[in-house]
Design goal:
6 helices, seven-stranded mixed β-sheet, homotetramer, alpha/beta, 2 domains, four-stranded antiparallel β-sheet, Vcp-like ATPase, Chain A, domain 2, Rossmann fold
Chain lengths: 253, 253, 253, 253
């Protein structure tokens, strides 16, 4: 049942999605007429609601995907196509302790914590406190009580935790953090990196030669199709690049 | 510490990976010489081990990714690039109850259970009992005690559960299961499908028009690079197709 | 040497390209200042020219690529990535006689004629005379005297030519033209099709079963990179779909 | 009509293609039975021929695409997907004079000459004479009398021609040839490069800063579909990388 304060995903007749927080008396304006958002309280998710122009909208249950895709951002975010793969590559499940460096807007923080909860914990480092505030806000919106400890600290100074199950690094010069990663990571366990440029990948691969064994360098492309059974075809344009992913494991050095 | 019965990922000098179960006295033969697998017992993950030819191998900790990639298979499997995205799209986290129809070799079953554990549960249906036996075996190898209930039953007869958080369907003619999905799924909640052909996507989209709201049709491509900092370039060939993914949500009908 | 009436490709300091026809007294305004276009007359291609703001622009020689990319359009055009492949697949070289049906804005017409000249000829059919006028205009801008005969006629009524070396069809329902194609094409010779949707490809493949042997169904993706040696990376977005290409050859029926 | 000495493309019932030179008395063995190749003499292209097992094969007319795809090779070749685009980017048409450096197996040589003939000419340089012999042989097989002059010479020593319309470079360290390119190319005219690695692209882009204006860095991907109207889907695997393409134009230096 939809309650006051819940987020709902309002979907227009042509499939446009709006994420709305439900409040009494709130009206949400769309190109297809106004929606009386308060009227959703007490109804079931999946219900239809008529706009002031008589158009049918549906009120759906958002998933973590919808929250992550819509984080308020001051940075480039990590997209679900990449985040889902990162979680599997790093093996994050309930109980895992994970370090993330480069909180940014907190999109990956959210996904890691979602995967690690209820018994794990994410330690998320960023040297810019305004990003940590933003990430906290984005995390709160999901409605999950996710286990994250934020730290305003440069990764080069070392991470406070030891024997973590996995590490993910999303900063410009990850080479400078490899000693910190090595100190904190369980032996044989994985670390991942996201890097926008090929030059960064080359630099990182060189630096990883000492103390790490590289498993994979890859990129993931998501291609959407128009939702039309009689005219099935890909969208005209797509995101062509978010970043290169690099995965490695700590070994003896 | 590596114990008898653990799986380790043995990595050769040129990066070839072998998943091995550790046993006393076991010898594993490679093109780079034999490895005394028993000698790993009591050592740390990440340690190096010399082959009989004096080559250095590393013994790494496998993650769920490595198990899923290597499931014993009698069917086409769902790959990590797709499985990670499916988990986020369906919003699977600890505590979720999920129905899967089309167990196959159990690769997605493993990922869903890994995401839902310890407080959730996966109900995995397949009409072919030999596949369920195979999936059980694959699940067991991961070493996780994952919460899965297997059922040998055709999806068309209906699923036994009600009000599940999400459903995933991987069968040839998913159109015939939509009534079963609708009966078992919480209103407003997501269902996903994997389909090899464009024709199947068209048929499914038509059938979804009643009782479901489609969010996305997409495909995910993973492109690997050679791990060489001085000659960074994509692999020569790649998997060009696993399947089309379709995501929808249950609405009033 | 640049002469009055020539087209030049003016390139701004950051790499933005403008195709300009050179005229005495003409001034071209850009965000980087005005360019005295007339001053280019008598200079060499490749020369630099200063804008009114003191910025350096280069005046380059456009190739057929630049003309085709910039055709005035009232329709979806066929892009160079597809057109180049079509020319090779159809084997168009000087002396070839080619039928095109679906002139549209004339982008492929231009490329086919460019490949077939000086001794070949393109017969381009469209039932909409305004498109043929547009194509003529686009063809004229290239400055080449390209051998094209335009015809305002529906392909279903048959093409006037016999024993042509190749045919290319870019219309909504190519199935209806297959008899016309078969009548006009040399036996064993190729025909190509561009189709936006997967459903059209399925329909066409079924129709081709009589009288044609299909060689290939494919799509071509072009992915651009940012021109920055220190930060090499793909563009953020790309064209994800222009159309599916189908190639077949006429056989006994 | 098929004559002795012609190449034909024999296509099996399931679409497998074989390029065969027609000779009296020649028998060609396939998994579907033997084909009496000599019996094709005097018949039309597109005709059917029965194998010794009673299976229907078609004898099709090969196009330049088929020859280029099947060049005898001692090197990585340039594929039609790239070659077609290169021709348009460089603006090669009848009458153009083009320098190619890095003949290799002659696949691009063939395409450039096919585009430039009958009034143009390709000057193809390679320092390894065995490659030039191979390229000559491949060129001859096409049956076209294509206008190519081969030269065994290192590009660093300079090309013999002046004021050519376009240049294409396919060697490991194109940076070392830029002075030669600049000397031989018409001002404002295009030069293209094919490079397997990202590192090479970075090095080249830096070197091009003097005397050239870069238009584009890109890669072209061709994705094939299975030829099945009822089960339309991409092939399982695809070529994921041939090379990065770089296009630039000569400017004042």
């Amino acid at each position: 049942m939809i309650r006051e304060g819940d987020f709902v995903l309002l979907v227009s007749p042509e499939g446009k999605e709006f994420m709305i927080q439900v409040q009494k008396g709130k009206v949400f304006g769309t190109h297809r007429g106004n929606i009386d958002v308060g009227s959703l309280i007490g109804r079931e998710f999946g219900c239809s609601v008529l706009s002031s122009k008589g158009e049918v909208f549906f009120a759906l249950k958002p998933t973590i995907y919808d929250f992550v895709k819509r984080v308020k951002r001051k940075t480039q975010i990590i997209y679900p196509k990449d985040a889902g793969y990162i979680v599997l590559r790093l093996g994050i499940t309930s109980g895992c302790r994970v370090i993330e460096c480069g909180t940014g807007s907190g999109s990956l923080t959210t996904v890691l914590a979602f995967a690690a909860h209820p018994f794990g914990r994410v330690y998320s480092y960023d040297m810019r406190s305004e990003f940590i505030e933003l990430a906290k806000e984005n995390l709160k919106r999901t409605g999950f009580d996710l286990p994250v400890t934020f730290k305003v600290k440069r990764g080069e100074e070392g991470f406070d935790e030891r024997d973590v199950d996995a590490v993910f690094i999303d900063v410009k010069t990850p080479e400078t953090l490899l000693d910190s990663v090595w100190q904190s990571l369980k032996p044989g366990h994985p670390v991942g990196f996201l890097l926008p440029t090929a030059n960064q990948v080359s630099s990182l691969l060189k630096a990883l030669e000492r103390g790490f064994c590289v498993s994979e360098v890859c990129e993931i492309l998501l291609r959407r199709y128009k939702i039309n059974p009689d005219r099935l075809r890909p969208d005209d344009i797509m995101n062509a690049h978010t970043g290169y992913l690099v995965f490695a494991r700590k070994v003896e050095r």
